[in-house]
Amino acid sequence: MSYLNLQQVALGYGNARTAVEGLDLAVERGELISLLGPSGCGKTTTMRAIAGLIDLRAGRITLDGRDISRLPPNKRDIGLVFQSYALFPHLNVFDNVAFGLRLRKVPAAELRQCVEKVIAAVGLAGFEARLPAQMSGGQQQRVALARAIVIEPKLLLLDEPLSNLDAKLRVQMRAELRRIQRELGITMLYVTHDQDEALAMSDRIVVMNSGKIEQLDTPEQLFNAPRTRFVANFMGFENLFDYRDGQLHGAAGQLPLAGLPAGTACAGWRVQQVQVGSGPYAGRVLSRGFLGEHVEYLLQTALGEVRGMAPAALASAREGDTVHFDLPAHEALALAA
Ligand SMILES: Nc1ncnc2c1ncn2[C@@H]1O[C@H](COP(=O)(O)OP(=O)(O)OP(=O)(O)O)[C@@H](O)[C@H]1O
């Protein structure tokens, strides 16, 4: 049995239809697993259920060999870090972090040692006497993290913890979080709708769609070998077409393509795999976007819209021009039915 197990979990709110259905998930000790998916797919609901903030409609959850399905939140040994830092504004960094240990009546000397160790681990040594209002967003989020990990929870749940931070700080903080997670060996479930964040941080990623798991895999596998059309689209294969009888089928019509593996039902290409400027097909430029070394094109073609790229030096075509392009069969992501 794995460290954290969700077995056939169903979740919902009030009389509304089920928000999450038949969810099976097994997480190993020390793993960082991301829940990734579009808004409303059930990520937060799943986290709430693990934390004990909503009841299960069906199924069970075990953590470290114990059935926690019916335990109240404070008996589950689970730490939470959310988007809003929810620090106590009148307490300084030391006291914010020490809060949970004081509730547990940890003796003063041991408390000081634990708090200082965790404050150092999140890179805030020297900030102990600061109030939250005297710190940046990134620093406050580190305090929230320190406060959650100081009580050594069996599992740490993080729900979009970096989404209030600016882009640069977010990239920096995700590396920090990963380092802290590895150093302290904490098992983490991490909710995000940002695939770059999930790919950069996770041991494995759960891609969710409409309350169900579409694919659970390593970042490399998800990126290179998505198994469903939904995951492929989410992983940047923006050109996705049905395939049968030697023809690609798009919203507007068909184009012939040879060389795809037998049994292919859907073929996909990333924008950078679709070469604009030469190739057997033709399309009309709907728009172009300059990206420095490359120009990205949106083309109207016999299939419908196709997105492709050309090196900037060769990208002379403008809106309204007709250009050639290629959908190379040997580079296609080929999905079976
Ligand atoms: N408090 C609530 N009451 C009723 N329905 C809710 C409630 N919270 C969420 N839902 C519904 O449950 C479904 C799953 O929502 P959830 O918040 O888990 O999605 P999410 O993947 O976390 O989305 P986001 O990225 O926007 O936070 C949605 O259909 C949503 O409308």
TrEMBL record:
<dbReference type="InterPro" id="IPR003439">
    <property type="entry name" value="ABC_transporter-like_ATP-bd"/>
</dbReference>
<dbReference type="Pfam" id="PF00005">
    <property type="entry name" value="ABC_tran"/>
</dbReference>
<dbReference type="GO" id="GO:0005524">
    <property type="term" value="F:ATP binding"/>
</dbReference>
<protein>
    <submittedName>
        <fullName>ABC transporter ATP-binding protein</fullName>
    </submittedName>
</protein>
<dbReference type="Pfam" id="PF08402">
    <property type="entry name" value="TOBE_2"/>
</dbReference>
<dbReference type="GO" id="GO:0140359">
    <property type="term" value="F:ABC-type transporter activity"/>
</dbReference>
<keyword id="KW-1003">Cell membrane</keyword>
<dbReference type="InterPro" id="IPR050093">
    <property type="entry name" value="ABC_SmlMolc_Importer"/>
</dbReference>
<dbReference type="InterPro" id="IPR027417">
    <property type="entry name" value="P-loop_NTPase"/>
</dbReference>
<keyword id="KW-0547">Nucleotide-binding</keyword>
<feature type="domain" description="ABC transporter">
    <location>
        <begin position="4"/>
        <end position="235"/>
    </location>
</feature>
<keyword id="KW-0813">Transport</keyword>
<keyword id="KW-0067">ATP-binding</keyword>
<dbReference type="InterPro" id="IPR017871">
    <property type="entry name" value="ABC_transporter-like_CS"/>
</dbReference>
<keyword id="KW-0472">Membrane</keyword>
<dbReference type="InterPro" id="IPR013611">
    <property type="entry name" value="Transp-assoc_OB_typ2"/>
</dbReference>
<dbReference type="GO" id="GO:0043190">
    <property type="term" value="C:ATP-binding cassette (ABC) transporter complex"/>
</dbReference>
<dbReference type="GO" id="GO:0016887">
    <property type="term" value="F:ATP hydrolysis activity"/>
</dbReference>
<dbReference type="InterPro" id="IPR003593">
    <property type="entry name" value="AAA+_ATPase"/>
</dbReference>
